[in-house]
Design a protein that fits this description.
This protein has 214 residues and is α/β, with parallel strands linked by helices. The protein has 8 helices and 9 strands. It is globular, with a radius of gyration of 16 Å.
Length: 214
């Protein structure tokens, strides 16, 4: 019998953001922003494990307590090389398929991620399935997500040379369509808002997202 693929959600997050410091632990409805994100990911039944992939900086010790509270895993690695951090986290927890979500997306729609995972599983030999990643057509910024195989991530890392590709995990794969088999999911009209932003980058974003959560 063929072994079932292990599907892991990896949240990338750090607290010393230059645009909005400590944004992941800002509160809405008495919960941290990252706690809202974790709870949404926990509702996706196909995900076997959730990992917070943060840095080794002292300020990010806070995530250790958050991971323990929510009974999710923690991995700590490079601050600048986010791609290597995700790759090492995936290897440590034996991930076959990775749903990569930035901590900047606290109200991401779990149904969209579930659809991405199902699309990935149905289409054999697929390297990556994505919703709005680096393509400003479709779902609002803050709802975009990528699902890819560990094998594809490892191959992509070996090819990566540009600085922005170490920061944005899937960018190298999406720039090399001939080497990586990909599927972009076009959203239905009722959620087609490419100019809408629901990502947590600035304090003004926090006020909007807090109001939505409340």
């Amino acid at each position: 019998m063929k072994k079932r693929n292990k599907i892991v959600a990896i949240i990338t997050a750090r607290l010393n953001s230059t645009r909005l410091n400590s944004k992941h632990i800002l509160k809405a409805n008495n919960k941290y922003m990252i706690s809202h994100l974790i709870d949404r990911l926990k509702s996706i039944k196909s995900i076997d494990k959730i990992i917070i992939a943060t840095t080794t900086n002292k300020i990010d010790d806070k995530f250790v307590l958050i991971a323990k509270k929510h009974k999710v895993k923690i991995f700590r690695g490079s601050e600048q090389n986010v791609k290597l951090r995700v790759l090492k986290a995936a290897k440590k927890f034996s991930a076959d398929i990775i749903s990569c979500v930035t901590g900047d997306c606290p109200i991401i729609d779990p149904r969209l991620i579930d659809q991405l995972i199902n699309t990935f599983l149905i289409n054999k030999n697929l390297d990556i399935a994505y919703f709005g990643c680096f393509k400003r057509f479709g779902v609002p910024n803050g709802m975009d997500s990528c699902v890819f195989s560990y094998k594809a991530l490892k191959k992509s890392y070996q090819m990566t040379k540009k600085k922005d590709e170490f920061e944005h995990i899937a960018l190298n794969m999406l720039r090399n369509k001939k080497k990586f088999k990909s599927i972009f999911l076009y959203p239905p009209k009722n959620i087609n808002f490419p100019n809408l932003s629901l990502t947590l980058d600035y304090f003004e974003d926090y006020l909007v997202i807090k109001k939505i959560i409340n």
